[in-house]
Amino acid sequence: MPPLGTANRTHNPGMHFDLQPHLKGELIELRPLVENDWGDLFAVASDPLIWEQHPDSDRYKEEVFRAFFEGAIESGGAFVVIDTKSKRIIGSTRFYGYDSHKSEVEIGWTFLERKYWGGRYNREMKQLMLTHAFKFVDNVVFYVGENNLRSRRATEKIGAIKDGVVEKIYGNRQPSLNVRYVIKRAEASSTESRRYRI
């Protein structure tokens, strides 16, 4: 597998950023989220253990996940993650907050069914998204709850570097501290062989 975020990449900062491409790898494919995905996606999200370290820890509840799902549809940048072998929906992720002036986009709101935890699936998902993003921007950012140690380790594992702490609001909760991570296009190219192995 090519280094993370570098395969077939041509940087075109003047082009329009397609926030919902159809991306396909060996293990997974990403396609735009649609309303009809509700049932299959909630079947994955209804596992409380997925959210136990997340600031919005009751997202496994239908009414809470409904708000998440509707926000994902409205964002215009959300995907379902599909296992290419079984063809099942196994999670979701999204692009968000594209800023052409900062040459930046966020990857976030990611979750996977627990049987797909452990590195390979998350790595390929981020590889597909980073390869696409770096065609248009110089920086990709991630925000992870300060106490979500599992997701922080997964983010660091793909080569993201801590870039401060910010407050974010999830649902109707009080603001919570999130660690901001960044992967820079230039650094992804210059340090790929050292940083992007799992």
Which architecture does the CATH hierarchy give at level 2?
Answer: 3-Layer(aba) Sandwich
Class derived from helix and strand content:
alpha+beta
Distance between the termini: 11 Å
Strands, total number: 8
Number of helices: 6
Provide the CATH superfamily. Gcn5-related N-acetyltransferase (GNAT)
Task: Give a short overview.
By secondary structure, the chain is an alpha+beta fold.
Q: Your description of this structure?
A:
With 198 residues, the protein is α+β, with helices and mostly antiparallel strands. The protein has one domain: Gcn5-related N-acetyltransferase (GNAT) (Aminopeptidase). It has six helices and eight strands. A hairpin with a 7-residue loop joins β7 (161-168) and β8. The radius of gyration is 16 Å and the shape is globular. The chain starts with 22 loop residues before the first strand and ends with a helix. The model is unreliable at 191-198 (pLDDT under 50).
Please specify the SSE layout and strand pairing.
Elements: E1 23-24, E2 28-32, H1 38-45, H2 62-75, E3 78-83, E4 89-99, E5 104-112, H3 120-133, E6 139-145, H4 149-157, E7 161-168, E8 176-184, H5 185-190, H6 192-195
List keywords for this structure.
29% strand, alpha+beta, 6 helices, Aminopeptidase, 198 residues, single chain
